[in-house]
Amino acid sequence: MQHKLYIHNTLNRQKELFEPLNEPFVGMYVCGPTVYGDPHLGHARPSITFDILFRWLRYSGYKVRYVRNITDVGHLEHDADEGEDKIAKKARLEQIEPMEVVQYYTIRYHNAMNALNVLPPSIEPRASGHILEQMEYVQKIIDNGFAYESEGSVYFDVEKYNQKHHYGILSGRNIEEILENTRSLDGQSEKRRSVDFALWKKASPEHIMRWQSKWSDGFPGWHLECSAMGQKYLGERFDIHGGGMDLIFPHHECEIAQSVASLGHSTVRYWMHNNMITINGQKMGKSLGNFITLDEFFTGSHSLLTEAYSPMTIRFFILQAHYRSTLDFSNEALMASQKGFLRLVEAYERLQKIVPSKETSVEIKDWNTLCMDAMNDDLNTPIVISHLFDAAKTINTVYDGKGTLSETDLNMFKAVFRTYMIDILGLKTEQGDSKYLDSYKKAIDLILTLRLEAKQNKNWALSDKIRDELASYGFVVKDTKDGFEWSL
């Protein structure tokens, strides 16, 4: 059932027909989080984007090995080569072991991803668990003449590499110009050029996380972990490498250089990057006061939020924009997403209650093909959602008694919603504990039954009060010939 999937390849900046190297096996590597703080909206977008790709590839008949790493060493404060390790700094300030920091925030990250219905990867390696592989990778680059040792650290020689290969192939940067502008820095640093990047860093005396190597007691550079672990679990050539567009340079550019310097060729065939999330038009950041953690979304505890939002509302909000488009957050946009998601949930629930007729009297479309075509067009989830809304209008028409569906067409609707809304987009129709939800629904039904009795007794004041109070809490009550309906 494999489809003709077209994906945008950052490497050549155009859509390409996806053709795996070893069909039907697909190797996919995605840069995971650096676990030194609570997961936030910026973590959610790449996780959901590549969760969609993972789901679609498997639905399309491929066997997928999905590797998503955990960065728990080497990600420094100021840039990839300078400053204090973020995890080590937090451990020092809190007077705990670095791996306590790693474990605490890894668990919180996993809990958040589970709430967002992000499927776990096939393999989730940690950088600290692959130090030997990274040392071996460094040595091979040195042996091939593209790295040099300096005061116990090892740096990648970008100028020498660029003489034989193209450093800047992914980001499109003019490295020759950068090299020319950095020649005046000679002698001012361990590095020959400021553009050179660390493969291995000698640890300062106060640095907590360190390992013994032939060069020094130190730790691997940030860029190295993905190259080493990608090759270990997916081989010297694999299909897809993904992450946020902020990783294109320098992280992914350096990965390409490392693999070519080590192996003589690049390991990745398709590079995929999701765009950033902005908040009210500004880039999200702690310094701007607009940095919102996922837990703050789920509890409504941030000053920019007027209420708590469910994980599925957050997921739906992210999927309403194409993964390569900038996604601008505002409380108003999230409220609109919440209403849109609930409309789909309501249509799905109504679909289960429709009784089939002998024939179909409403106009229908081949929504399965329409949704499939949208997914095959570079994972166009906004178009899939628009098709589901279109189908929901027909469902509501039939539910309201203004049309009929045959059993065949009714089953088609159910299959489309089950496949695309639930299995592919990963939108769960219920949140939280099912027993709690059942009790909640029964309580609302009881209140509206009492209102119905008040109406029958011509107690209009009480009937109106119940309706108006529920409306103030966000409930929409609709009187029907059989009693009532309600939605939130």
The overall strand count is: 16
CATH superfamily of the largest domain: HUPs
Per DSSP, what share of the residues sits in E-state strands of 2 or more residues?
A: 5-15%
Low-confidence sequence ranges:
432-436
**How far apart are the termini?**
39 Å
Number of domains: 3
Structure description:
This protein has helices at residues 41-59, 86-94, 98-115, 131-143, 158-164, 175-181, 224-234, 248-263, 294-299, 311-319, 331-353, 367-376, 381-399, 407-424, 434-456, 460-472; strands at residues 6-9, 14-17, 25-30, 63-68, 147-150, 153-156, 197-202, 211-212, 217-220, 238-244, 268-274, 277-279, 282-283, 327-329, 476-480, 483-487. It has 488 residues and is an alpha/beta fold. It folds into three domains: 6-274, HUPs (Rossmann fold, 3-Layer(aba) Sandwich), CATH 3.40.50.620; 278-424, Isoleucyl-tRNA Synthetase, Domain 1 (Orthogonal Bundle), CATH 1.10.730; 434-487, no CATH class. The strands form five sheets. It has a five-stranded antiparallel beta sheet with strand order 5-6-7-9-8, covered by helices on one side. Strand 10, helix 8 and strand 11 form a beta-alpha-beta unit. Helix 2 (86-94) packs across helix 3, helix 10 (311-319) crosses helix 11 (331-353) and helix 11 packs across helix 13 (381-399). The longest helix is centred in the C-terminal third of the chain and has 23 residues, at 331-353. The chain starts with 5 loop residues before the first strand and ends with a strand.
Brief descriptors of the model:
Rossmann fold, 3 domains, alpha/beta, 45% helix, 4-stranded parallel sheet, 16 strands, 5-stranded antiparallel sheet, 488 residues, Isoleucyl-tRNA Synthetase, Domain 1
